[in-house]
Amino acid sequence: MKTHLLLKILAFVIFIPSIFFTQIKVERITGDDGKKIIGRNITIDLSVKIDSIEMPVEKGIYKLYIPSLQLKSLVIKKKAIEYEPLKMEKEKEKEKAEVGSENEVVAELVFRNNTQYILYIGVIGEEKIRKYILKSESDWKWTTSFGANAVFLTSRSRFTSVDNVVAQNRDGKMMDLMPSIMFTFMNNQRNFSPGFTGGLGFNFEELSVFAGGALGIGQNIVLSAGVAVHKQNRPNTDYTVGQTIDSSVTSDNLNKSQYRVNPFVGLSFRFDKNPFGAKP
Question: Which superkingdom heads the taxonomic lineage of this protein's source (predicted)?
């Protein structure tokens, strides 16, 4: 009795994968050399009864076949799969495809990065509409990380007052270190991936903007470098070197805060939550 039950369970486990893979067939058609791809087909078998199914596919242009006279209706909905955490979803209206005879191409599906098609198929003799989801995903994702960027000051000149005369000297500070949040577009399928990064730096006084290149290490560490736009105290153009000034004029008057462009390097980390956020 136990052996008979075990055989039934084993047969069920073996049978389920075959049902899953025979519902949708995705194939690449190659040339005589067996290497060059000359076409791609997606075939949906309506003889296998399901409520819904989801399946990933490679990028490319596919011909959709539904070889069954039981096909009653077909609605195709195309949408773009949004990146996270910067979401920008674009969706097209539902389109009704022409229902043809058996073995006829009913639609052409163009899969690019992060493309998703939802097929709503009505089958003769069934009241419930079947749902098929076909999607392609990119290896490249937006990754949010938190860290610090070192901004190197290329111009360090300042005005000071010497015996009521404007003089120029150099600021002793060579760089600004600023906490930052970075958004990096990189290939998360690789342990070492170059990419593009941009972000915001913040302190108690002003906001800075960063943009440049990045290297992702194991998805959780991001090295970045590029240019930063941030505020610095630099000579006030209302004054010139050697100008005689009143004793009431201070260094705060001789210099003013200005946005400047400087190079930066940074190190950031991907956490499961914002480390700078308030604790619950």
Answer: Bacteria
Distance CA 269, CA 218 (A): 10
Whole-angstrom Cα Rg for the chain? 31
Choose between 208 and 188: higher pLDDT. 208
Q: Work out how many domains the chain is built from and give that number.
A: 2
User: Is residue 185 a contact partner of residue 140, using CB atoms and an 8 Å limit?
Assistant: yes
Using the 8-state DSSP alphabet, how is residue 21 labeled?
A: H
DSSP single-letter state for residue 190: S
Question: DSSP letters of 63-128?
Answer: EEE---TTEEEEEEEEEEPPPSSS----BPPPEEPPP-STT-EEEEEEE-TTEEEEEEEEETT-SS
Shared domain check, 159 and 235: yes
In a domain, 278, yes or no: no
Place of tokens 């913040």: 202
Note whether 160 and 120 are same-domain residues: no
Q: How confident is the model at residue 104, as a pLDDT?
A: 62
Measured between alpha carbons, how far is residue 96 from residues 77, 88, 114, 136 in Å? 9, 25, 22, 22
**Would the pTM of this model clear 0.85, i.e. be above it?**
no
Give the residue-averaged pLDDT of 104-124.
82
Q: Would you call 248 helix, strand, or coil by DSSP? A: coil
